[in-house]
Amino acid sequence: xxxxxxxxxxxxxxxxxxxxxxxxxxxxxxxxxxxxxxxxxxxxxxxxxxxxxxxxxxxxxxxxxxxxxxxxxxxxxxxxxxxxxxxxxxxxxxxxxxxxxxxxxxxxxxxx
Length: 112
Fold this sequence. Notes:
By secondary structure, the protein is mainly beta. The protein has no helices and 11 strands.
């Protein structure tokens, strides 16, 4: 059974940093790409970054490029999202995703 469990969200002031984690199980981690999405209140879910666990290639949405860094640790079956220079508009529930599987999400709130 595929499971994705996010952690690391919280309340931070604008300009601060957080690191989110996505612990994965139930599949061959190295064979897949994992993505981070976010959904702000009243808005559609937005894809913000993804990483291929086979070759380490990464992609970022323009809204987070240069501020967020995605990485993975295959030995721990975990994907991270380092978020720096946070802005109030980054406030959202953050989810990790594998194909059709989703975690439960973790809330990130950035105060101005």
